[in-house]
Amino acid sequence: MVPSSRAILLIDDNPAVSRAMEIAFRMAGHRLDTANGPEEAYSCLARRRYDAILLDMNFRMGESSGGEGLACLARIVADDPAACVVVITAHSGIRIAVAAMQAGARDFAMKPWRNAELVAKVETAIARGAPAPPGTPAASPADLMAEPPRLLGDSVAMQALRTLVHRIGPTPASVTITGPSGGGRTLTALAIHAASPHADTAPVRIDLRDEAAWQRLDDAGGTAILRHPDRLDGVAQARLLDRIPTALRCIAIADAIAPIVPALYRRLATVEVAIPPLADRQDDAVLLARHFARIAAARFGKPQGRLTGAAEAAIRTARWPDEVRGLALAIERAVLLSGDGTVDAAALALPAVPTAVQTASAAGNTDANFDLTDAEKTMIEAALREHRHNVSHAAAALGLSRGALYRRMARYGL
Ligand SMILES: Nc1ncnc2c1ncn2[C@@H]1O[C@H](COP(=O)(O)OP(=O)(O)OP(=O)(O)O)[C@@H](O)[C@H]1O
Predict the structure, then answer these.
(1) C-alpha 188 – ligand 1 centre gap (Å)
(2) Which residues on neighbouring strands pair with residue 110, listed in sequence order?
(3) Which residue in 137, 185, 223, 234 is a FRET match for 154, CA 20 to 30 A apart?
(4) 3-state secondary structure of 35
């Protein structure tokens, strides 16, 4: 028997299909959220757990190979092997449906479908549950509700990180994660733990700078997330090494590897994982910003969470002192203070970068109240495009006076 209300995510780029499905599932007592493609889908999945995911296999017009859908399915199932995915294929797409079932889909529906039958199919797929591998302990309802930590980002570095997480997660290998603070080190540690056989037990988290907290190592089973081993002096590191139980799986978070003494390094870093700063993965910064805008819009009751082209260009080249956390805060604030959830470049309090423009300001040109970086020209072009070459609107979006924007347009030949 299926409980009355289920949360379902539909991944489909056709708004008419989404609306029709929303009504059909709502009438059956369920909640249906929609995502217009893989990027939005991963963002939704990072925010909450869905009982089922309905996945259209082709997103682009004229595309019928199912390749995009299969790639999306592979990522969803890799992040959460218990995900209940039902794929939707064209009537002639039996080959794609078979490939999807082999790749971990629970069921498939052919177009065109009857809404009532599709709802029943999804309810049945949920009720059947995931086929558990032999020896898997039963998950508690609380575990089933917890959101698996998801690392968003399509940069080569993030794709490699996700692959590594899935490869080393299930093993007992110790891992040390480095990278700038706020850049996703803890999230990565949690993702590794979530892919491990101890996933149903919360990891022990210890800030090693607080020696009193070390006593929690004594009764820790499963996984321990150990923060800042690199901040301890050599003597303390040796004491720590003696204190860590042999069977404990350690995931350490450090600013740098160099200060860790070799003996402790051997215990903590069978594998080293380095998370690059956002500045080295600019597309991820934009993708994450869109994700945070959607979350903030839902949280603050704004009709949409959207970034203008100028805002995206600014985000791509900005330096975020607190990395992803700093970006999330800036977007959250901008969405909150906006009228309808649309964020323009001027609304982002971008971290100051010494630039030619600032030098010009210091020399008496006071019309730049916005720190433009090397990518100034790109931002101006994006703002002009966004505002259909209306200079007043583009200037307002950039936080510049009309005169200042005209001067810059002349300088860049725009
Ligand atoms: N790739 C990512 N996808 C989605 N969210 C991310 C990603 N990277 C970071 N975040 C989010 O950014 C915030 C900061 O990340 P996290 O806490 O993992 O950083 P950290 O490096 O452990 O920071 P610190 O060591 O200072 O606590 C968290 O809310 C996290 O969920």
Answers:
(1) 8
(2) 89
(3) 223
(4) strand
Q: Kindly state whether residue 314 falls inside one of the protein's structural domains.
A: yes
Q: Is the pLDDT of residue 315 over 90?
A: yes
Distance 181 CA to ligand 1 centre (A): 8
- 312 Cα: distance to centroid of ligand 1 (angstroms): 20
Radius of gyration (Cα) for the chain, nearest Å?
A: 25
300 and 269 within one domain: no
Which residues, 6 or more positions from 173, have their beta carbon under 8 angstroms from its beta carbon? 249, 270, 271
d(CA 375, CA 319): 12
If asked whether residues 328 and 207 sit together in one domain, one would say no
| Alpha carbon distance 405, 145 (integer Å) | 51
The domain tally of the chain equals 3
CA of 76 to the centre of ligand 1 (A): 20
Predicted local distance difference test score (pLDDT) of residue 407: 79
CATH number at residue 232: 3.40.50.300
Nearest Cα residue to 216 out of 208, 15, 159: 208
Q: Among 218, 245, 274, give the residue marking a domain's end.
A: 274
CB of residue 192 inside a 6 A radius of ligand 1: no
Mutate to test the pocket of ligand 1, among 187, 205, 227, 283 (most ligand atoms within 8 A of CB): 187
| Separation of CA 108 and ligand 1 centre (Å) | 35
Q: What is the pLDDT of residues 181-194, one digit of tens each?
A: 999 999 999 999 99
* Sequence-distant (≥ 6) Cβ neighbours of residue 141 within 8 angstroms: none
Task: Check: CB of residue 244 under 8 Å from CB of residue 217.
Answer: yes
Of all protein residues, the one whose alpha carbon is nearest to atom 15 of ligand 1 is 184
Determine whether the shortest distance from the Cβ of 325 to ligand 1 is under 6 A: yes
Q: Print the domain residue range for 48.
A: 7-130
ipTM associated with this complex: 0.98
